[in-house]
Amino acid sequence: MEDHTDQPQMSPELTERQALGERLRQAREYIGLSQEEVARLLQVPRTAVTGMESGQRRVEATELKRLAVIYRQPISYLSGETEIEKALPADVAHMARTASELSIDDRKELGRFAEYLRARGTVKGSV
Fold first, then answer.
1. Where are the domains of the chain?
2. Residue 33: what pLDDT?
3. Residue 93: is its pLDDT beyond 90?
4. Which residue from 10, 43, 79, 94 has the fewest beta carbons nearer than 10 Å?
5. pLDDT tens for residues 13-59?
6. How far is CA 126 from the centre of its chain?
7. CB-CB contact of 38 with 68 (8 Å)
8. Assigned CATH for 11-82
9. Using alpha carbons only, what angle is made at residue 100 by residues 90 and 41, rounded to the nearest 5 degrees?
């Protein structure tokens, strides 16, 4: 049996930063922004964005708040605090966030349309 005690262990903080970085990268790519564009919006060097996404650089609270606005994601999603958000595919979570900003009547209409699409898909699938 091999002894792995001499291999360096990642600190919990580094692991969390890397997980945050991965969520930031996915959110950025989902909305189609480059690291350069995000850096310009944050008014930081592109290398700062690269460092955030790789987990090598800490993300300041004010930066996380601005990134949440830029990426149209709740801070809790970016920080990994919401299990529901993590369980949903990115496109579904995006639709849910967008729908939450609609009026009650518009959300009801959206729900009816989703039911229609689901029923139409079921019918198509059985043919």
1. 11-82, 88-127
2. 94
3. no
4. 43
5. 788 889 999 999 999 999 899 999 999 999 999 999 999 999 999 99
6. 35
7. no
8. 1.10.260.40
9. 60
Q: What is each CA distance from 23 to 59, 80, 107, in whole angstroms?
A: 12, 8, 28
Query: What pLDDT sits at residue 22?
Result: 93
Q: What is the pTM of this model?
A: 0.58
Query: Which amino acid is located at 38 in the chain?
Result: V
* Rounded distance between C-alpha atoms, residue 74 and residue 87, angstroms: 15
Instruction: Find out whether 86 and 76 touch, Cβ atoms under 8 Å.
Output: no
Q: What is the 3-state secondary structure (H, E, C) of the chain?
A: CCCCCCCCCCCHHHHHHHHHHHHHHHHHHHHCCCHHHHHHHHCCCHHHHHHHHHCCCCCCHHHHHHHHHHHCCCHHHHCCCCHHHHHCCHHHHHHHHHHCCCCHHHHHHHHHHHHHHHHHHHHHHHC
The confidence score (pLDDT) of residue 123 equals 55
